[in-house]
Amino acid sequence: MINLPGARPVLNPADFTGLENAIKDAPRPRKRLTELMIKTALEQPGVKPTEAQAAAPREWGLKFQRSPQEVLPTADGRRARGIRLALTRLEGSGDSAKAIPTGDVEEVECGLVLSSIGYRILPLDPAVPFDTQRGVIPNSSGRVEGVPGLYCSGWVKRGPTGVIITTMNDSFDTAHSVLEDLQGGVLDVSTSREGFGAVESILRSRGVRPVSFSDWEKIDAAEVARGKAAGKPREKIVDPQEMLRLIGH
């Protein structure tokens, strides 16, 4: 986004001053991303932006320590005209830090509001440990604590944070743990497991018909065909029942 054509980043230097030492031991992807933002935010004031940046018709920025309170409607109540944000301060440190409202608010004018706040994980099974405070399964590099041979990945591993590449790297980390345990003899591979066959029989006994990869390919093809007719890459089907009808469920 920093190099996005036709746009320039506007980052508050105060948000990034003094962060170099704080990210020394951060995971590599987070460290690299933060270093890039620090470099962008702390560029010397005397340095002139490039011609392309100066002429950019759009600009974007990041606002930290804000909590959405209310979407503000237009007078007719049909559209968004802004959003009210509560200013917060951090109490605690590391993963235990919490954002506490300061009592101050600010309003940001906007015509479009996108919700992207993730969701809270729920316990899976009484036999699987669960941290209700953080909403995650306690683990070390994906190894579920106290349950040898059980692994986790994604938001249930780290909480609702990050983007697709974050989840990919997170999965690689868990897969590396599985391989380590296989090579170290931690996992019992002397007996074969049924794998999906066992899961499938349970689903069928409950009257559940799973969606297969070939089923997904039919939905994908239908979405692409509808999108082509409308002059775009894809027309997303948002009704689950329509998806199931497409694949003959």
From TrEMBL:
Keyword Oxidoreductase attributed: yes
Keyword Transferase found: no
Top-level taxon of origin: Eukaryota
Single Gene Ontology MF annotation: oxidoreductase activity
CC cofactor: FAD
Keywords attached to this entry: FAD, Flavoprotein, NADP, Oxidoreductase
Coiled coil: none
PANTHER family assigned to the protein according to its UniProt record, in alphabetical order: GLUTAMATE SYNTHASE 1 [NADH], CHLOROPLASTIC-LIKE
The protein's name in its UniProt record: NADPH:adrenodoxin oxidoreductase, mitochondrial
Species: Otus sunia (Oriental scops-owl)
